[in-house]
Write a structure and sequence with these properties.
333 residues, alpha/beta, Rossmann fold, Alpha-Beta Plaits, 6-stranded mixed beta sheet, 4-stranded antiparallel beta sheet, 40% helix, binds adenosine-5'-triphosphate
Amino acid sequence: MSEIIKIKNVIKEFKVLNRREGLKGSLKDLFSRDYKIVRAVDNISMNIEQGEIVGYLGPNGAGKSTTIKMMTGVLEPTSGEILVDGNIPYQNRTKNAQKIGVVFGQRSQLWWALPLVESFKLLKDIYQIPDAEYDGMLKLYQSLVDIGPLLHKAVRQMSLGQRTLSDILAAFLHNPKIVFLDEPTIGLDVSMKAKIRTLIHALNKEKKTTVILTTHDMGDVDALCQRIVIIDKGKMLYDNDIEHLKGFFGSYRTLKIRVEGDLKAQADIIRREVPDFSVSADDEWISVLVDEDKNKVIDVLGLLQKTHKIRDMQLEEISTEEVIKKIYEEGVQ
Ligand SMILES: Nc1ncnc2c1ncn2[C@@H]1O[C@H](COP(=O)(O)OP(=O)(O)OP(=O)(O)O)[C@@H](O)[C@H]1O
Protein backbone atom coordinates (compact mmCIF):
# COMPACT_ATOMS: atom_id res chain seq x y z
CA MET A 1 0.00 0.00 0.00
CA SER A 2 1.15 3.55 -0.64
CA GLU A 3 0.98 6.57 1.60
CA ILE A 4 -1.54 9.07 0.29
CA ILE A 5 -1.25 11.65 3.09
CA LYS A 6 2.01 12.61 4.77
CA ILE A 7 1.97 15.05 7.66
CA LYS A 8 5.25 15.96 9.34
CA ASN A 9 5.69 18.19 12.39
CA VAL A 10 2.79 20.41 11.45
CA ILE A 11 2.02 23.47 13.54
CA LYS A 12 -0.82 25.92 12.92
CA GLU A 13 -1.08 29.12 14.88
CA PHE A 14 -3.75 31.83 14.74
CA LYS A 15 -3.27 35.43 15.77
CA VAL A 16 -6.32 36.48 17.76
CA LEU A 17 -7.29 39.74 19.40
CA ASN A 18 -6.94 39.67 23.17
CA ARG A 19 -10.21 41.43 23.99
CA ARG A 20 -10.28 43.58 27.10
CA GLU A 21 -13.36 43.49 29.27
CA GLY A 22 -16.07 46.16 29.59
CA LEU A 23 -16.75 49.36 27.71
CA LYS A 24 -13.43 50.89 28.74
CA GLY A 25 -11.65 47.76 27.48
CA SER A 26 -13.49 47.87 24.16
CA LEU A 27 -12.49 51.50 23.69
CA LYS A 28 -8.87 50.67 24.47
CA ASP A 29 -9.07 47.80 21.92
CA LEU A 30 -10.00 50.36 19.27
CA PHE A 31 -6.76 52.28 19.75
CA SER A 32 -4.17 49.73 20.84
CA ARG A 33 -4.71 46.19 19.74
CA ASP A 34 -3.25 43.46 21.85
CA TYR A 35 -2.88 40.12 20.07
CA LYS A 36 -2.18 36.64 21.33
CA ILE A 37 -1.13 33.52 19.46
CA VAL A 38 -3.38 30.45 19.64
CA ARG A 39 -1.66 27.20 18.68
CA ALA A 40 -4.51 25.12 17.23
CA VAL A 41 -2.32 22.29 15.93
CA ASP A 42 0.86 21.52 17.81
CA ASN A 43 3.49 19.43 16.05
CA ILE A 44 1.41 16.69 14.51
CA SER A 45 2.88 13.93 12.35
CA MET A 46 1.09 11.02 10.71
CA ASN A 47 1.03 9.08 7.48
CA ILE A 48 -2.18 7.68 6.02
CA GLU A 49 -2.28 4.83 3.52
CA GLN A 50 -4.47 4.66 0.44
CA GLY A 51 -7.72 2.90 1.33
CA GLU A 52 -7.61 3.42 5.10
CA ILE A 53 -10.59 4.68 7.09
CA VAL A 54 -9.16 6.82 9.88
CA GLY A 55 -11.23 8.21 12.75
CA TYR A 56 -9.82 11.64 13.61
CA LEU A 57 -11.14 12.30 17.08
CA GLY A 58 -10.86 14.81 19.87
CA PRO A 59 -12.97 17.00 22.13
CA ASN A 60 -14.35 20.35 20.94
CA GLY A 61 -11.59 22.79 20.04
CA ALA A 62 -8.95 20.01 19.82
CA GLY A 63 -7.74 21.11 16.38
CA LYS A 64 -9.49 18.56 14.13
CA SER A 65 -11.09 21.05 11.72
CA THR A 66 -7.86 23.04 11.51
CA THR A 67 -5.93 19.89 10.51
CA ILE A 68 -8.54 19.00 7.91
CA LYS A 69 -8.56 22.53 6.52
CA MET A 70 -4.78 22.20 6.05
CA MET A 71 -5.19 18.83 4.30
CA THR A 72 -7.80 20.31 1.95
CA GLY A 73 -5.65 23.37 1.21
CA VAL A 74 -7.95 25.94 2.85
CA LEU A 75 -5.29 26.82 5.43
CA GLU A 76 -1.51 27.00 5.19
CA PRO A 77 0.47 25.43 8.05
CA THR A 78 2.57 27.83 10.15
CA SER A 79 5.37 25.26 9.90
CA GLY A 80 5.85 21.61 8.99
CA GLU A 81 4.98 19.68 5.86
CA ILE A 82 1.75 18.27 4.42
CA LEU A 83 1.64 16.24 1.24
CA VAL A 84 -1.65 14.96 -0.16
CA ASP A 85 -1.02 12.50 -2.99
CA GLY A 86 2.31 14.20 -3.60
CA ASN A 87 0.91 17.76 -3.65
CA ILE A 88 1.27 20.58 -1.17
CA PRO A 89 -2.47 21.29 -0.72
CA TYR A 90 -2.47 25.10 -0.18
CA GLN A 91 -0.10 25.62 -3.13
CA ASN A 92 -2.10 23.41 -5.51
CA ARG A 93 -5.70 23.92 -4.42
CA THR A 94 -7.28 23.13 -7.79
CA LYS A 95 -5.22 20.00 -8.29
CA ASN A 96 -5.93 18.95 -4.71
CA ALA A 97 -9.67 19.52 -5.17
CA GLN A 98 -9.73 16.90 -7.95
CA LYS A 99 -8.38 14.32 -5.52
CA ILE A 100 -10.64 15.00 -2.56
CA GLY A 101 -14.32 14.95 -1.66
CA VAL A 102 -15.85 16.54 1.43
CA VAL A 103 -19.03 16.20 3.46
CA PHE A 104 -19.55 18.63 6.31
CA GLY A 105 -22.33 17.40 8.59
CA GLN A 106 -25.57 19.24 8.05
CA ARG A 107 -24.21 21.80 5.56
CA SER A 108 -25.14 20.46 2.17
CA GLN A 109 -22.98 21.30 -0.82
CA LEU A 110 -25.70 20.33 -3.28
CA TRP A 111 -27.76 22.81 -5.27
CA TRP A 112 -30.76 23.33 -3.04
CA ALA A 113 -33.46 23.96 -5.64
CA LEU A 114 -32.30 21.38 -8.18
CA PRO A 115 -33.16 17.68 -8.44
CA LEU A 116 -30.22 15.58 -7.30
CA VAL A 117 -29.47 14.38 -10.82
CA GLU A 118 -28.93 17.99 -11.96
CA SER A 119 -26.41 18.51 -9.11
CA PHE A 120 -24.68 15.33 -10.25
CA LYS A 121 -24.54 16.62 -13.85
CA LEU A 122 -23.04 19.91 -12.66
CA LEU A 123 -20.43 18.00 -10.65
CA LYS A 124 -19.73 15.85 -13.72
CA ASP A 125 -18.93 19.05 -15.67
CA ILE A 126 -16.94 20.68 -12.85
CA TYR A 127 -14.76 17.61 -12.31
CA GLN A 128 -14.79 16.64 -16.00
CA ILE A 129 -15.88 13.10 -15.25
CA PRO A 130 -15.88 11.01 -18.49
CA ASP A 131 -19.33 9.64 -19.50
CA ALA A 132 -18.39 6.00 -18.94
CA GLU A 133 -17.07 6.70 -15.43
CA TYR A 134 -20.13 8.76 -14.53
CA ASP A 135 -22.49 6.03 -15.75
CA GLY A 136 -20.44 3.42 -13.89
CA MET A 137 -20.69 5.44 -10.69
CA LEU A 138 -24.48 5.78 -11.00
CA LYS A 139 -24.74 2.02 -11.57
CA LEU A 140 -22.64 1.40 -8.47
CA TYR A 141 -24.81 3.80 -6.45
CA GLN A 142 -27.95 2.03 -7.66
CA SER A 143 -26.52 -1.30 -6.52
CA LEU A 144 -25.69 0.10 -3.06
CA VAL A 145 -28.75 2.25 -2.35
CA ASP A 146 -32.04 2.78 -4.12
CA ILE A 147 -31.18 6.17 -5.63
CA GLY A 148 -33.87 6.04 -8.34
CA PRO A 149 -36.50 7.96 -6.32
CA LEU A 150 -33.90 10.43 -5.02
CA LEU A 151 -32.43 11.45 -8.37
CA HIS A 152 -35.46 13.48 -9.40
CA LYS A 153 -36.18 15.00 -6.03
CA ALA A 154 -35.12 18.59 -5.27
CA VAL A 155 -32.59 18.64 -2.44
CA ARG A 156 -34.70 21.08 -0.41
CA GLN A 157 -37.54 18.54 -0.38
CA MET A 158 -35.37 15.75 0.99
CA SER A 159 -35.31 14.51 4.58
CA LEU A 160 -32.05 15.05 6.48
CA GLY A 161 -31.17 11.37 5.97
CA GLN A 162 -31.79 11.51 2.21
CA ARG A 163 -29.77 14.71 1.96
CA THR A 164 -26.84 13.24 3.89
CA LEU A 165 -26.92 10.18 1.68
CA SER A 166 -27.00 12.40 -1.42
CA ASP A 167 -24.14 14.52 -0.09
CA ILE A 168 -22.01 11.42 0.42
CA LEU A 169 -22.78 10.14 -3.07
CA ALA A 170 -21.90 13.58 -4.48
CA ALA A 171 -18.58 13.62 -2.59
CA PHE A 172 -17.58 10.25 -4.08
CA LEU A 173 -18.90 10.98 -7.62
CA HIS A 174 -15.60 12.08 -9.19
CA ASN A 175 -13.88 9.06 -7.61
CA PRO A 176 -11.59 11.12 -5.37
CA LYS A 177 -8.68 9.39 -3.67
CA ILE A 178 -9.63 10.85 -0.29
CA VAL A 179 -12.98 11.78 1.22
CA PHE A 180 -13.25 13.90 4.37
CA LEU A 181 -16.40 13.27 6.36
CA ASP A 182 -17.21 15.61 9.21
CA GLU A 183 -19.96 14.25 11.52
CA PRO A 184 -21.69 12.39 8.67
CA THR A 185 -24.43 10.82 10.82
CA ILE A 186 -25.25 13.80 13.05
CA GLY A 187 -28.97 14.21 13.70
CA LEU A 188 -29.96 10.94 11.99
CA ASP A 189 -32.08 8.17 13.47
CA VAL A 190 -30.60 4.76 14.24
CA SER A 191 -31.64 3.03 10.99
CA MET A 192 -30.45 5.92 8.79
CA LYS A 193 -27.13 5.98 10.65
CA ALA A 194 -26.71 2.27 9.90
CA LYS A 195 -27.55 2.85 6.22
CA ILE A 196 -25.03 5.69 5.92
CA ARG A 197 -22.30 3.66 7.63
CA THR A 198 -22.92 0.68 5.33
CA LEU A 199 -22.72 3.01 2.31
CA ILE A 200 -19.42 4.59 3.41
CA HIS A 201 -17.96 1.16 4.10
CA ALA A 202 -19.06 -0.17 0.70
CA LEU A 203 -17.68 2.85 -1.19
CA ASN A 204 -14.37 2.57 0.65
CA LYS A 205 -14.14 -1.15 -0.23
CA GLU A 206 -15.26 -0.72 -3.84
CA LYS A 207 -13.16 2.32 -4.75
CA LYS A 208 -10.28 1.97 -2.23
CA THR A 209 -11.05 5.54 -1.21
CA THR A 210 -9.19 6.82 1.82
CA VAL A 211 -11.69 8.17 4.34
CA ILE A 212 -10.87 10.65 7.10
CA LEU A 213 -13.75 10.74 9.50
CA THR A 214 -14.28 13.25 12.28
CA THR A 215 -17.12 12.36 14.58
CA HIS A 216 -18.32 12.48 18.15
CA ASP A 217 -20.47 9.40 17.48
CA MET A 218 -18.65 6.32 18.70
CA GLY A 219 -21.08 4.16 16.70
CA ASP A 220 -19.45 5.62 13.57
CA VAL A 221 -16.01 4.77 14.93
CA ASP A 222 -16.97 1.21 15.87
CA ALA A 223 -18.67 0.57 12.54
CA LEU A 224 -16.05 2.12 10.27
CA CYS A 225 -12.59 2.82 11.65
CA GLN A 226 -9.74 0.36 11.81
CA ARG A 227 -7.44 3.13 13.02
CA ILE A 228 -8.05 6.10 15.25
CA VAL A 229 -6.03 9.22 15.81
CA ILE A 230 -6.90 11.28 18.87
CA ILE A 231 -5.83 14.86 19.40
CA ASP A 232 -6.43 17.22 22.27
CA LYS A 233 -5.30 20.85 22.62
CA GLY A 234 -3.61 20.47 19.23
CA LYS A 235 -1.36 17.62 20.37
CA MET A 236 -1.57 14.03 19.26
CA LEU A 237 -2.57 11.71 22.08
CA TYR A 238 -2.98 8.44 20.24
CA ASP A 239 -2.49 6.88 16.81
CA ASN A 240 -3.17 3.17 16.52
CA ASP A 241 -5.96 0.66 15.97
CA ILE A 242 -8.96 0.58 18.27
CA GLU A 243 -8.36 -2.97 19.57
CA HIS A 244 -4.86 -2.01 20.65
CA LEU A 245 -6.38 0.88 22.55
CA LYS A 246 -8.89 -1.32 24.30
CA GLY A 247 -5.94 -3.49 25.42
CA PHE A 248 -4.80 -0.59 27.62
CA PHE A 249 -8.11 -0.72 29.41
CA GLY A 250 -8.51 -4.49 29.51
CA SER A 251 -9.32 -4.58 33.22
CA TYR A 252 -12.27 -2.22 32.85
CA ARG A 253 -15.85 -3.48 32.60
CA THR A 254 -19.05 -1.50 32.30
CA LEU A 255 -21.70 -2.43 34.83
CA LYS A 256 -25.07 -1.44 33.39
CA ILE A 257 -28.09 -1.28 35.66
CA ARG A 258 -31.76 -0.33 35.38
CA VAL A 259 -33.22 1.21 38.51
CA GLU A 260 -36.59 2.62 39.42
CA GLY A 261 -37.19 6.33 38.88
CA ASP A 262 -35.73 8.85 36.45
CA LEU A 263 -32.42 7.40 35.24
CA LYS A 264 -30.59 10.72 34.83
CA ALA A 265 -31.56 11.80 38.37
CA GLN A 266 -30.64 8.39 39.79
CA ALA A 267 -27.29 8.55 37.98
CA ASP A 268 -26.59 11.89 39.69
CA ILE A 269 -27.25 10.24 43.05
CA ILE A 270 -24.98 7.29 42.19
CA ARG A 271 -22.27 9.71 41.08
CA ARG A 272 -22.32 11.20 44.59
CA GLU A 273 -22.39 7.76 46.22
CA VAL A 274 -19.41 6.41 44.24
CA PRO A 275 -17.39 9.51 43.32
CA ASP A 276 -14.35 7.48 42.20
CA PHE A 277 -16.27 5.75 39.38
CA SER A 278 -17.22 7.16 36.00
CA VAL A 279 -21.04 7.10 35.84
CA SER A 280 -23.21 7.90 32.82
CA ALA A 281 -26.83 7.40 31.83
CA ASP A 282 -28.85 7.09 28.62
CA ASP A 283 -32.56 6.46 28.12
CA GLU A 284 -32.25 2.80 29.13
CA TRP A 285 -29.27 2.19 31.37
CA ILE A 286 -27.04 3.71 34.01
CA SER A 287 -23.45 2.72 33.29
CA VAL A 288 -20.76 2.47 35.94
CA LEU A 289 -17.19 1.91 34.78
CA VAL A 290 -15.40 -0.54 37.10
CA ASP A 291 -11.64 -1.16 37.13
CA GLU A 292 -11.55 -4.83 38.11
CA ASP A 293 -7.94 -4.54 39.24
CA LYS A 294 -9.22 -2.30 42.03
CA ASN A 295 -12.84 -3.35 42.70
CA LYS A 296 -14.97 -6.43 42.23
CA VAL A 297 -18.08 -5.82 40.12
CA ILE A 298 -20.12 -7.85 42.60
CA ASP A 299 -19.04 -5.51 45.44
CA VAL A 300 -20.06 -2.41 43.45
CA LEU A 301 -23.40 -4.03 42.64
CA GLY A 302 -23.91 -4.90 46.33
CA LEU A 303 -23.17 -1.31 47.30
CA LEU A 304 -25.66 0.12 44.81
CA GLN A 305 -28.31 -2.41 45.80
CA LYS A 306 -28.37 -0.97 49.31
CA THR A 307 -29.78 2.35 48.13
CA HIS A 308 -31.43 1.56 44.76
CA LYS A 309 -34.01 -0.90 43.56
CA ILE A 310 -32.13 -2.62 40.71
CA ARG A 311 -34.52 -4.12 38.15
CA ASP A 312 -32.00 -5.42 35.60
CA MET A 313 -28.26 -5.55 35.02
CA GLN A 314 -25.70 -6.28 32.31
CA LEU A 315 -21.94 -6.52 32.24
CA GLU A 316 -20.09 -5.29 29.16
CA GLU A 317 -16.57 -4.77 27.91
CA ILE A 318 -15.44 -1.14 28.05
CA SER A 319 -17.02 0.73 25.13
CA THR A 320 -15.10 2.78 22.57
CA GLU A 321 -16.75 5.88 23.96
CA GLU A 322 -15.51 5.18 27.46
CA VAL A 323 -12.01 4.34 26.22
CA ILE A 324 -11.82 7.67 24.43
CA LYS A 325 -13.26 9.57 27.38
CA LYS A 326 -10.59 8.02 29.59
CA ILE A 327 -7.86 8.99 27.14
CA TYR A 328 -9.13 12.58 27.10
CA GLU A 329 -9.06 12.53 30.89
CA GLU A 330 -5.90 10.53 31.59
CA GLY A 331 -3.97 10.03 28.34
CA VAL A 332 -2.26 6.77 27.40
CA GLN A 333 0.87 5.93 29.32
N1 LIG B 1 -9.68 31.06 12.21
C1 LIG B 1 -9.37 30.95 13.49
N2 LIG B 1 -8.91 32.02 14.18
C2 LIG B 1 -8.58 31.92 15.48
N3 LIG B 1 -8.64 30.77 16.20
C3 LIG B 1 -9.09 29.68 15.58
C4 LIG B 1 -9.48 29.70 14.20
N4 LIG B 1 -9.89 28.45 13.85
C5 LIG B 1 -9.76 27.69 14.96
N5 LIG B 1 -9.27 28.41 15.99
C6 LIG B 1 -8.98 27.92 17.34
O1 LIG B 1 -8.15 26.78 17.21
C7 LIG B 1 -8.52 25.77 18.16
C8 LIG B 1 -8.88 24.48 17.42
O2 LIG B 1 -10.08 24.68 16.69
P1 LIG B 1 -10.70 23.59 15.69
O3 LIG B 1 -11.90 24.20 15.06
O4 LIG B 1 -9.65 23.07 14.78
O5 LIG B 1 -11.14 22.43 16.71
P2 LIG B 1 -12.05 21.14 16.46
O6 LIG B 1 -11.29 19.99 17.08
O7 LIG B 1 -12.40 21.00 15.03
O8 LIG B 1 -13.33 21.44 17.34
P3 LIG B 1 -14.90 21.05 17.11
O9 LIG B 1 -15.05 19.58 17.45
O10 LIG B 1 -15.57 21.93 18.10
O11 LIG B 1 -15.23 21.39 15.68
C9 LIG B 1 -9.65 26.35 18.98
O12 LIG B 1 -9.09 26.92 20.13
C10 LIG B 1 -10.22 27.42 18.07
O13 LIG B 1 -10.82 28.46 18.82
